[in-house]
Amino acid sequence: MKLITICIPMYNESDNILALHKELTKLADFYDTRYKFEFLFINDGSLDDSLDIVRQIAKDDKRINFVDLSRNFGKELAMLAGFDHAKGDAVITMDADLQHPPEIIPSMITEWENGYDDVYGKRIARKGESFFKKLGSKVYYKILGMFSKVPVLPAVGDFRLLDRKCVNSIIRLRESQRYTKSMYMWIGFEKKEVQFTSNERYSGKTKWRLKHLIKLAVNGMISDSTKPLHFSFYSGLIISLISFIYMIYIFVKTIVTGSSTPGFPTLTILILFLSGTQLIFLGVMGEYIGKIYTEVKNRPPYLIQEYFDQIEDDYEDIT
Ligand code: UDP
Ligand code: MG
């Protein structure tokens, strides 16, 4: 019998876990003896009692495993920990807050049985998110598309089913500054879309702050592409060319008319403009150097406090 892992990163989700577990139980009951399930919770340094609740329900539900990270490492790394510990022939990643509707999972499993390796949920509508968040995400995907090497699909997130071979590929990519969305595209394999409408959060507030979103956005643009560097280089070239022509113009003009003082505003504008662009491009390079610095340290991407495993290991042989 095939084993399917449902992998759930959680950070302060104590009010959602029981509701989520109920849904997952329904799902497993629906498949009855056709599949085995593993419910793998990754506790990403929650400050509330999320882990205690999981520990409690794990006593009665032998399908539950969990990994307790040593602190909050962020969702991207929590997911990596999930992929590292998942035992399933397929792994489904979903949020703990029920924004990813579990009723979609059966259609993902069907597509997997049809031979697809990477069945991703595409959000066709979202409930309960502000106009600005929606607009922001639209604009972001447009800009990201211009910069990244492999196209990243808009409105496609981390609600997806991955076949074992995709999981094995993802866990070979060990960088600690991850943008998993572009990794899914990078690994390739047979992909299939399944549409869903995202729900409102069941309980609690989103963990994302603007600063996290900006960090993730920057990561997305430069993690898989050197296009921003090329962009800086070529715009630098064009700006210098224009400045050079302008310089000759000023030079000739001064020689012909003999007066130079009226040029003061132009000078100020030029200096400000040029130093501004230089700072931006230095910043772009700085971003890359910062990433290189973090990666060359070659630290483990996350650390584990405890791995709780109660699923018989003969299932590991299948994988
Ligand atoms: N999450 C996590 N670590 C974090 C932040 C979030 O594991 O540092 C988990 C969170 O518990 C949830 C999922 O990632 O299961 C998505 O988080 P959230 O709902 O806050 O994000 P949004 O749905 O608003 O994008
Ligand atoms: Mg959410």
Could you outline the blueprint of secondary structure elements for this entry?
Layout: E1 2-10, H1 14-31, E2 35-43, H2 50-60, E3 64-69, H3 75-85, E4 90-93, H4 105-113, E5 118-126, H5 131-147, E6 156-163, H6 164-170, H7 180-187, E7 191-198, H8 210-222, H9 227-257, H10 264-296, E8 304-308, H11 314-318
Parallel strand pairs: 1-2, 1-4, 2-3, 5-7
Antiparallel strand pairs: 3-8, 4-6, 5-6
Uridine-5'-diphosphate is lined by residues 9-11, 13, 44, 72, 74-75, 78, 95-97, 99, 206-208.
What does this structure look like?
It contains 11 helices and 8 strands. It has an 8-stranded mixed beta sheet, sandwiched between helices. It folds into 2 domains: 214 residues, Alpha-Beta Complex (Spore Coat Polysaccharide Biosynthesis Protein SpsA, Chain A), CATH 3.90.550; 70 residues. The model has no long low-confidence stretch (mean pLDDT 85). It binds uridine-5'-diphosphate and magnesium ion. The site of magnesium ion (MG) has 5 residues, from loops. Uridine-5'-diphosphate binds next to β1 and α3. Belongs to the glycosyltransferase 2 family. GtrB subfamily. InterPro entries: Glyco_trans_2-like, Glycosyltransferase_2, Nucleotide-diphossugar_trans. It is a multi-pass membrane protein.
What attributes characterize this protein structure?
51% helix, Spore Coat Polysaccharide Biosynthesis Protein SpsA, Chain A, binds uridine-5'-diphosphate, 319 residues, 8-stranded mixed β-sheet, binds magnesium ion, alpha/beta, Nucleotide-diphossugar_trans, 8 strands
Query: What's the architecture of the largest domain, going by CATH?
Result: Alpha-Beta Complex
Order of helices and strands: EHEHEHEHEHEHHEHHHEH
User: Average pLDDT across residues?
Assistant: 85
Poorly predicted spans: none
Strand content: 15-25%
C-alpha geometry: elongated
- Total domains, how many? 2
Helix segment tally:
11
| Strand line-up across the major sheet | 7-5-6-4-1-2-3-8
User: How much helix is in the residues?
Assistant: 40-55%
The class by helix and strand makeup works out as alpha/beta
CATH class of the largest domain: Alpha Beta
Euclidean distance between termini CA atoms? 12 Å
Rg (CA only)? 25 Å
CATH superfamily of the largest domain: Spore Coat Polysaccharide Biosynthesis Protein SpsA, Chain A
What profile does the largest beta sheet have? 8 strands, mixed
Strand tally, please?
8
CATH topology of the largest domain: Spore Coat Polysaccharide Biosynthesis Protein SpsA, Chain A
Which ligands are bound? uridine-5'-diphosphate, magnesium ion
Family: Belongs to the glycosyltransferase 2 family. GtrB subfamily.
InterPro entries: Glyco_trans_2-like, Glycosyltransferase_2, Nucleotide-diphossugar_trans
Subcellular location: Cell membrane
Membrane topology: Multi-pass membrane protein
